[in-house]
Design brief:
It is a single chain. With about 1000 residues, the protein is α/β, with parallel strands linked by helices. It has 4 domains: about 75-300, Vaccinia Virus protein VP39 (Rossmann fold); about 305-370, no CATH class; about 435-715, P-loop containing nucleotide triphosphate hydrolases (Rossmann fold, 3-Layer(aba) Sandwich); about 720-980, 3-Layer(aba) Sandwich (Rossmann fold). Helix content is about 40%, strand content about 15%. It is built from 35 helices and 33 strands. Helix 21 (about 540-545) links the parallel strand 17 (about 535) and strand 18. Helix 11 packs parallel to helix 14 (about 360-370). The longest helix has 21 residues, at about 760-780. The relative contact order is 0.05.
Length: about 1000
């Protein structure tokens, strides 16, 4: 330490006077012989503004006003105790060659222990402590400026500091907490793998839930090292008692360091030597080993300024050499010079200066505007201008949509080129807006479909009459939605549409987008089998090698990765491509990456066809992103509901006028929210099915959209065969299961070990009822997986499944569940009960697509094999039509997901009758689950243009109404939410 530390505590009432005297000595550079006060004295006695606000809380209306006034006076000047500074340096072992910075250095606490004073850099906004620091440490490179504008032009090995706490700082139109901004600034100025050690309040990034945004920001720039709790009276000498603080150590990320996310774990009662040995020494040694690589990384990162300078020089050169803009060259040079030499005037506050100063982006914009002046804009007066969505004439705007829908509203719009545009748009609108039921077959298309075949070495496939009738109508429209039930030949239909568009509509490519299992297990094989030229996108080179006339197949995962490059390619061919989106229900979540990727790349295509067996699974709003992809929020996608339903402040639904009435739905979230408010504002939950009505609002308007967009066909309608039935088998729990079930209901705290704690009490409280629900489902699925269950007793549901297998002793049987652990449980019991029958297992995490094909082939070679799998591992593009018995002992959240599974066995080519068995426990949560499945399916059937009564729905699913008499419900008590039963007795 440069100066001797006396550890003498200055009385609170004397601090202000002592500070004033020291500032006078420093400002006038008075010698020690004249004042009798040495630099050692100043070093120990100067304490800054912290704790000297002199305000009384009683004089303010609120604690918030009091805090603001106090912060304005103190400015966060709570100087770091020298013993703590020394402790931090002992943790770090900084060398003589390291560059150090403190971005809010105050009077220079952290300079006191620097190995080389001239290697220390700092900035301080307040002139008084800044001058004291310059007086005490003349060799240090200090600046009197705001941290937000500190630009030392070098990078540092270490950033140390004690930033102001809980202030709000604005920078580039954003507001930051002062401690967090200090970290962001440090990330800018540190070298890769450089270390930051700062003192912050204990509340900083303490809660992974409420501080999630800041923690994500820290993880973006830094690797976490450790954090150490400080004594709550660390700043007692400044009048601050019982205030908890901590030291946090971070390392700036580098491509040569291992990524370590932030942890809320805090060390306490630890020495500086222990911190060095356990945490800092390994990192420091690693930095020494890669110092040359770090140097090169630093050089590469510094090229940003070079790129900006090059862009400025290039623009200035273009301005100078162009005869039409050269007269502006001198003014542009002056503007660039103003940017480089600008300084904040003394009379302007820093926040105001942040708004007024010239920024790098302003320079580029100014130069581009000067360069654009070579092509002056023509006078718009007296001319009709077509914008993206309007016609403009002398400042008056008329919506193009209104012109198409209602005719001209302004006489001066009479023009041949406008007539051509409007007539074309009106013709396209009339075609797309016509319900399929009112359309007539096109003879030319019909002839082409009659002649269309796909041939391989073994057979020739042709479309049947039902398929041709629908495809004829689909092809007449640029946008269509094929909702044929699983196994009805959607792949064949998609190929037919793609082939027709390539031959007749002057498109250059057909893009096939779907899930990985569908692309790799179906489309890739089918296109190769029938000799269709295609390319599969697996890397950037594949996109660059796309040829005209090819089918382009790509998985949703690859779409997320390469959507920007796909969009660029599609734009290069002027959107002249066809999109066939198979299994389009996979973009039901508006906020998912796959939805955003597909919309970004394909929303402007000329032709789009979506295909799925079920457009929705849980809620009608799931179809909105699919409509948005088809219609691109255009005139074909008008919000025609005059009134919508939204919640008021009391949480009750009420009618409100739709401000987007007869306008296209807005894009993304706003549109989805409006769609939900227009048609079905309530969600369906396991408990809610018995408490809310699930009526569809404005059903006639939604039906109009469905009628013009979607043709739905059941498997029977396409094939002309009734090939399957669903049977419900209800079994009663055994005594052991009932006891376990009762524990989960009434004493759930005993089973909370099943679910990991998040570490956040608020989150855990919110998740408690959900965890209890999941525990009940686990008991219904396989209770022997829980430690409370007597493992020697086989659950009744397992006995029921085994009895079915015994009944089907000479047949192949498929068993589909939801969890891998349940697959393992059934596999164990079935192998024990039927040692002579071959058993096959498929799970998504252990069985590749090629292995699944091999297993299915081996199953086909048996006569009584048993296939046990998760439903999701056989959810698409698998043809297993030789299995006639399917057992589902674990229900999914909706029938759409289950039907994706059991329709692997019910195919277009099937000739034998199939039976699907749902095995459930009566008087259990599975009754609620079954009820929810039925309610969801009723809504889904509306989307399929089928409006069934409850009795018809129950008959389709083989449900006896007695199964649903006693449902579970959620009740609020003094202790919070608990699960109760209707009239059921679980004992």
């Amino acid at each position: 330490m440069k100066y001797k530390c006396t550890n003498e505590v200055i009385p609170q009432k004397m601090r202000e006077d002592i500070n004033t005297k020291i500032e006078y000595i420093v400002n006038n550079d008075l010698p020690e012989v004249e004042t009798g006060i040495s630099k050692d004295d100043i070093f120990n006695a100067y304490t800054g503004l912290g704790g000297l606000h002199g305000l009384e809380f009683n004089n303010y209306d609120s604690y918030y006003d009091y805090q603001r006034a106090k912060a304005d006076i103190e400015q966060g000047q709570f100087f770091t105790p020298y013993k703590l500074v020394e402790w931090i340096y002992n943790c770090l072992h900084i060398s003589n060659t390291d560059l150090i910075a403190d971005l809010t250095c105050g009077h220079g606490s952290f300079i006191s222990c620097a190995p080389v004073e001239s290697n220390f850099y700092g900035c301080e906004l307040d002139g008084k402590p800044y001058r004291v620091a310059k007086y005490l440490y003349p060799d240090a490179k200090l600046e009197n400026t705001d941290i937000r504008f500190y630009e030392p032009k070098i990078t540092f090995d270490y950033v140390l500091g004690n930033p102001p706490y809980n202030l709000r700082w604005r920078k580039d139109d954003s507001s930051y907490l002062s401690e967090y901004y200090y970290c962001l600034k440090a990330a800018e100025l540190l070298k890769p793998a450089g270390i930051m050690a700062i003192i912050v309040p204990m509340s900083f990034c303490a809660d992974s839930f409420s501080d999630g945004g800041m923690i994500d920001g820290m993880n973006k720039h830094f690797n976490f090292i450790c954090q150490v709790e400080l004594d709550k009276n660390t700043f007692k000498h400044l009048g601050i008692e019982n205030y908890k603080t901590k030291i946090v150590f971070f390392q700036k990320k580098s491509e040569y360091t291992k990524e370590v996310p932030y942890s809320t774990e805090i060390l306490s009662s630890i020495t500086s030597d222990e911190v060095w040995e356990r945490y800092l020494k390994p990192i420091t040694e690693k930095r020494g080993q890669i110092k040359n690589k770090i140097f090169l990384e630093t050089v590469r990162n510094s090229k940003d300024d070079e790129a900006w300078n090059f862009k400025v020089e290039k623009l200035l050169y273009d301005i100078k050499r162009n005869p039409k803009t050269c007269s502006q060259y001198a003014e542009c040079c002056e503007y660039v010079n103003r940017y480089k030499t600008q300084k904040k005037p003394d009379h302007i506050k820093w926040d105001e200066w942040e708004q007024l100063k010239i920024k790098p982006k302003d320079v580029i914009k100014h130069l581009k505007m000067a360069l654009c002046s070579q092509n002056p804009r023509l006078d718009r007066t007296g001319r009709i201008i077509k914008n993206n969505y309007t016609f403009e004439y002398n400042g008056d705007f008329t919506s193009i949509n209104d012109v198409v829908l209602k005719g001209f509203s302004m006489g001066h719009f009479q023009s041949k080129w406008i007539d051509k545009i409007v007539n074309k748009k009106r013709k396209m609108y009339d075609i797309q807006n016509m319900p399929f039921s009112e359309m007539q077959p096109n003879k030319k298309i019909a002839k082409w479909l009659d002649e269309f075949t796909l041939t391989d070495d073994e057979r020739t496939i042709k479309l049947n009459d039902a398929q041709k009738a629908d495809l004829n109508l689909f092809i007449q429209k640029p946008y269509s939605f094929i909702q044929w039930e699983q196994g009805s030949g959607k792949t064949f239909a998609g190929i037919a549409i793609g082939k027709y568009r390539l031959q007749h509509d002057h498109v250059k490519n057909v893009f096939i987008v779907s899930t990985a299992i569908s692309i790799k297990n179906n489309w890739q094989d089918v296109l190769a089998q029938y000799g269709i030229d295609f390319v599969m996108i697996e890397n950037l080179a594949d996109i660059q090698n796309i040829k005209e006339g090819q089918f382009v197949i790509i998985t949703l995962n690859m779409m997320c990765k390469y959507h920007k490059f796909i969009k660029r390619y599609v734009k290069s061919i002027c959107q002249k491509a066809v999109l066939i989106f198979d299994e389009s229900d996979n973009m039901s979540n508006q906020d998912s990456k796959r939805t955003k990727a597909v919309l970004n790349a394909f929303r402007r295509l000329k032709y789009k066809t979506l295909m799925t067996g079920t457009s929705t699974r849980n809620n009608i709003t799931e179809i909105y992103p699919q409509f948005e992809l088809l219609y691109n929020n255009s005139i074909n996608m008008l919000s025609e509901c005059e009134y919508i339903m939204e919640r008021n402040k009391d949480g009750e639904l009420e009618d409100r006028r739709n401000k987007y009435y007869l306008q296209p739905y807005p894009a993304y979230r706003k549109g989805r929210k409006l769609f939900a408010a227009s048609h079905i504002p309530e969600k369906i939950t396991v408990f809610g099915v018995s408490q809310f009505t699930q009526d569809i609002l404005n059903a006639d308007i939604l039906k109009q959209m469905i009628d013009k967009t979607i043709i739905t066909r059941t498997f029977e309608e396409i094939t002309g065969k009734q090939l399957y039935e669903i049977k419900q088998i209800a079994c009663e729990m055994g005594e052991e299961e009932k006891c376990l079930y009762k524990v989960a209901l009434d004493e759930f705290y005993k089973m909370e070990y099943l679910f990991a704690k998040t570490g956040n009490s608020r989150k855990d409280a919110m998740l408690k009822i959900l965890n209890q629900l999941l525990a009940l489902l686990k008991i219904c699925a396989a209770p022997q997986m829980l430690r409370e269950y007597n493992q020697s007793i086989m659950p009744e549901k397992f006995k029921t499944v085994l009895s079915l297998l015994d009944e089907f002793s000479d047949e192949r049987v498929a068993i589909g569940v939801r969890h891998i652990s349940v697959v393992d449980a059934y596999t164990k019991e079935i192998k024990k009960a039927f040692p002579g029958r071959p058993v096959f297992v498929i799970t998504g995490n252990e069985t590749t697509l090629q292995q699944r094909k091999k297993i299915v082939k081996e199953l086909k070679e048996t006569t009584n094999g048993i296939l046990i799998s998760t439903q999701q591992s056989l959810s698409a593009s698998m043809n297993i039509d030789f299995v006639n018995k399917c057992i589902i002992p674990e229900l999914h959240w909706n029938n759409s997901s289950m039907s994706q599974y059991y329709f692997r066995f019910i195919r277009y080519t099937s000739t034998e009758f199939k039976q699907v068995y749902f095995v459930t426990y009566e008087n259990s949560i599975e009754s609620n689950l079954l009820k929810m499945i039925l309610v969801k399916d009723k809504l889904n059937l509306f989307m399929k243009d089928q409006d069934l009564t409850d009795d018809e729905l129950y008959e389709h699913f083989g449900v006896d109404s007695n199964m649903l008499q006693n449902l579970m419900y959620k009740e609020k008590t003094k202790e919070g939410y608990v699960i109760r039963w209707g009239d059921q007795k679980v004992s």
